[in-house]
């Protein structure tokens, strides 16, 4: 990615939008871009942390793998989102694994450049605090869903949440295995729920994609116990 394109991409990210054009241009000169293919790991849980990541194109999933190769999908990241910031503050290893869902491009900001930016840009620091707060709220919401929602409700709520992030098209690029890992259920159970929703005209299921047809009816599928 060329320098001008990197600067334009940074300007679209809330974390860097408040920077002056000169500061953003200077940062862009130190940022590097990297492409990842579908299924490629951006970094593993336990890896040392050296960069902040900005997702420019594509999508990626945040996972917690276990020792047997299974994984829990914590979140789906979309263009414009920033991730990998937590380990930059405490020098601890990465707390999750990030995997590209499709072809993905990211910008990598070195740890020293990121921390130096926070020291001289208070607005950027406030955006980081908002980012950390959003991550905490997302984790809390996931725990609540696992406790208070049955599998059909968790599937419906996850599709609603993910499609809302996806924008006007309301289409999610996600495999059924990933959705099962996200809601903490078997693929068979999730497939059954998706088939029911599709047969009633609420969603449309395609290869690696789920589209929302009737958002209001889908919302009514979320029933708290």
Structure, described:
By secondary structure, this protein is α+β, with helices and mostly antiparallel strands. The chain has 2 domains: 142 residues, Sandwich (Jelly Rolls), CATH 2.60.120.10; 70 residues, Arc Repressor Mutant, subunit A (Orthogonal Bundle), CATH 1.10.10.10. Helices cover 47% and strands 23% of the residues. The chain has 10 helices and 11 strands. The strands form 3 sheets. It has a 4-stranded antiparallel β-sheet. Strand 10 and strand 11 form a beta hairpin. The longest helix is centred in the middle third of the chain and has 27 residues. The protein is elongated and about 55 Å long. The N and C termini lie far apart (49 Å). The model has no long low-confidence stretch (mean pLDDT 90).
Describe this protein with a few key phrases.
single chain, 225 residues, alpha+beta, Jelly Rolls, Arc Repressor Mutant, subunit A, 2 domains, four-stranded antiparallel β-sheet, 10 helices, 23% strand, elongated
């Amino acid at each position: 990615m060329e320098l001008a394109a990197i600067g334009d991409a940074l300007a679209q990210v809330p974390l860097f939008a408040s920077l002056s054009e000169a500061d953003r241009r200077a940062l862009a000169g130190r940022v590097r871009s990297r492409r990842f293919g579908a299924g490629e790991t951006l970094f593993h849980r336990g890896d040392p942390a050296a960069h902040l990541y900005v997702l420019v194109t594509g999508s990626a999933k945040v996972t917690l793998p276990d020792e047997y190769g299974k994984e829990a999908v914590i979140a789906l990241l979309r263009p414009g989102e920033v991730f990998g910031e937590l380990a930059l503050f405490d020098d601890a290893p990465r707390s999750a694994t990030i995997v590209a869902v499709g072809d993905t491009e990211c910008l990598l900001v070195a740890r020293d450049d990121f921390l130096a930016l926070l020291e001289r840009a208070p607005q950027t620091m406030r955006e980081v605090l908002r980012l950390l707060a959003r991550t905490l709220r997302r984790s809390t919401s996931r725990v609540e869903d696992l406790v208070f929602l049955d599998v059909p409700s968790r599937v419906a709520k996850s599709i609603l949440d993910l499609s809302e992030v996806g924008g006007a098209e309301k289409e999610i690029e996600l495999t059924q295995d990933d959705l099962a890992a996200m809601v903490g259920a078997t693929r068979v159970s999730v497939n059954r729920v998706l088939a029911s929703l599709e047969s009633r005209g609420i969603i449309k299921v395609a290869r690696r994609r789920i589209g929302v047809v009737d958002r209001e009816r889908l919302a009514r599928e979320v029933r708290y116990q």
